Amino acid sequence: MALALTGLSVWDGRAERASPRGWTIRIESGRIAAVGPDPELAADAREIPLDGCTAIPGLIDAHVHLTLDPKIIKPADQFRVPVGELEEAMVERARAMVRAGITTARDLGGGEWFELALRDRIAKGEVPGPRLLCAGQPLTSPGGHCHFWGGEFRSPDEIGLVIRRQVERGADWIKVMATGGVMTAGTRIRDLQVEPDDLRRIVELAGEAGRSVAAHCHGTPGIEAAARAGVRTLEHCSFVGTGGFGSGFDRGVVRLLASKAPGGSGVSGQDLWVSPTVNANWALRSRKDGNPTAFGMRMARVLRAQREAGVRFIASTDAGIPGVAHHRLPEALAVFAWMAGMTPVEVLRTATSESAAALGIADVTGALEPDLAADVLVLEASPLDDLDTLRVPRLVVARGEVVALDG
Ligand SMILES: [Zn+2]
Known about the structure:
Elements lengths: L1 E9 L12 E6 L2 E6 L8 E5 L4 E4 L1 E6 L10 H4 L4 H17 L2 E6 L6 H10 L7 E4 L21 H14 L3 E5 L18 H13 L3 E8 H10 L3 E8 L10 H9 L13 E3 L6 H5 E2 L2 E2 L1 H16 L19 H12 L3 H7 L2 H6 L17 E4 L13 E6 L2 E3 L4
Parallel strand pairs: 1-4, 1-5, 6-7, 7-8, 9-10, 10-11, 11-12
Antiparallel strand pairs: 1-2, 2-3, 5-15, 13-14, 15-16, 16-17
Helix pairs in contact: 4-5, 5-6, 10-11
Bound molecules: zinc ion.
Zinc ion (ZN) binds next to loops.
């Protein structure tokens, strides 16, 4: 039976404003059948009256790790969680995410493909959760960032082996660790860890297998090399220099990133998005006693300079890393908007239509338009006026199914 959400103001994921009140979203067979002011759209449907509420597309978190427990500080301790417990915890994380209005997420790395198994269970409707896109084992240099996940390569030939292994397991994306990372002892986050030739080879081989590449990069040389190699998303992109996050700010590299954005002036055929993994905890890291911290000032400069230059952002949290729970993207968006100087509608696009375009799923989700999946987040007030309304969803629909928010 069709489902009709009525009495809504609708923001479609793209427009500057939401529609007037009184609109209906008609849902049939998991898809949006129609959106508009015509009361006939509710005919012969189960109606859920939502007078005065605002509907937006379900949110997309472009960088999470379902296998990671955010309460565990040391990466090695993650492996001590028994498999059965881990699988249960992952189901709980997925449930919490979709109940928070996150209807799609991209998982950017784990060691044993458990997140791909969860992706398939969610897709079959066995457990509630967001639609998942998964990268499996990230490619990394010997002893490099997250080498414990099994994606090390020692030679150019081994690049092909690691990529083939992910593709055979059903990975949707290929991830590469272009620089060191915070989580891995012995790596330096500002150093390039993968040779530019190898980065190009990764992009080429992934492309032959029909996969796009996400590059983890903190240090400025890694950001530049990954962008030049033709990756589709730059993760973190934190311009780390000798003075920490944001201290390696480089206007020339920002211009390079902007030139490769969709519609930019750079090489045609390359679309580049930046996924800065601004999580909700950045509110605390960035401000103390009402004043910006050094971290906050540096990262605000980095993010604002990118935005002003025309770099395209997608929202992401790196959920699963210590202290970052999987369901907190809605809170993170207000922090991201503030840090990068974005208006509410701009930041909401980074978590909906813009993200869907970056992830290659704009024909599936990311907007409230006919024929797309019925991924809908309904809120008591308009998040275009106040992003804090995202914190308490009134109703979530994921692929046409109403998600239980209580119990
Ligand atoms: Zn990550």
